[in-house]
Amino acid sequence: IQSLMGTLAWVITPLVVLVSVVWVGLLALANVRERRVEIGILRAIGKGSGVIVTLFLGKAALMGLLGAAVGLGVGMLGARLVGTAALGVGPEQVAARPDVLLAALCGAPILAALASYLPTLSAVTQDPAVVLRDQ
To answer: 10-residue block means of pLDDT along the chain (135 residues)?
Structure first.
């Protein structure tokens, strides 16, 4: 059964990561579309592309870090509860591996920023004159 669980983890984990990246990218795209006027105003008052990129990618990275922290906490608590109640495993056997924690806390912000890259490019390339003229 352990080999079956390992195989499932190797298949399901990349699928979950892929779905998460697509979801974050779509949310970032919606955020860019909702903030067109704000982006236009920032550009019109002289803020450069670097500021806009920092705002959008920084927000994505912070949300990724927050999501990783909450997910790790909920996941560890759930694993302990399910492990002890349903599987009869002691809490000491459901220990967090430091390499997995580090990978999640570093990887989630990076993946969130990468997923937000294309929507951020669309935010940077918006012409402020066109955006503000429509208002």
So the answer is: 78 92 96 93 91 95 95 87 74 79 94 96 89 80
Which of 39, 59, 26 is CA-nearest to residue 128?
39
Question: Angle at Cα 40 formed by Cα 39 and Cα 44, nearest 5°?
Answer: 120
The 3-state secondary structure of the chain reads CHHHHHHHHHHHHHHHHHHHHHHHHHHHHHHHHHCHHHHHHHHHCCCCHHHHHHHHHHHHHHHHHHHHHHHHHHHHHHHHHHHHHCCCCCHHHCCCCHHHHHHHHHHHHHHHHHHCHHHHHHHHCCCHHHHHHCC
pTM of the model: 0.82
